[in-house]
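Continuing the batch. This is chain 6 of the set; chains 1 through 5 are on the previous pages. Same settings as before, nothing changed between runs. Recording input and output for traceability.
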Amino acid sequence: MSLWAKLKDAITTDDAEAAEEARKEAEAAQAEADKAKVEAQARADEARRKADEAAEKAGLPSATAEEKAQADTARQEAEAEAQAAQDAQFEADRKAEEKAQKAIDKANARREKKQEAREERQEERQGARQEARREAAADEVYTVKSGDTLSGIGQRFGVDWHVLARVNNIDNADLIFPGQKVKIPKK
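Output for chain 6:
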């Protein structure tokens, strides 16, 4: 998976600021890697050029043993420099990938934090709604006083006395007593 595909997968459009920051960090890391690759390739090319010159010189019939040894040494140095250039390219790519991954992780952490905050707010709203429902659904309780009747209590609270009798399991509406608790249901 390419660096850009990873960025795309890691960052959503609802977090544009984090996406832009991660993109810039990834581009900077890629630019550093590209620069290191170019420099390493230039060193390798120069080493190969020197080796070719030495080899050409060593290949002449008039070449001395010392020139031939120098050509072999130049060839070995060129190979070593080419290997060093490859290693430098690999290291530059690794560093670019590492920086890009850090940017992705940072963007993901930011997105997760925002998601957690959204979930907390949603839970708080849901709790508030449930509390409001409980309060709205809570029945009022009236304590019967001497001289009260079920129909009088119902009339005072705007509830039919039949409903009061049913809600409070009162079989005989004429038999209520002072101190008795009567639930008054909400309309």
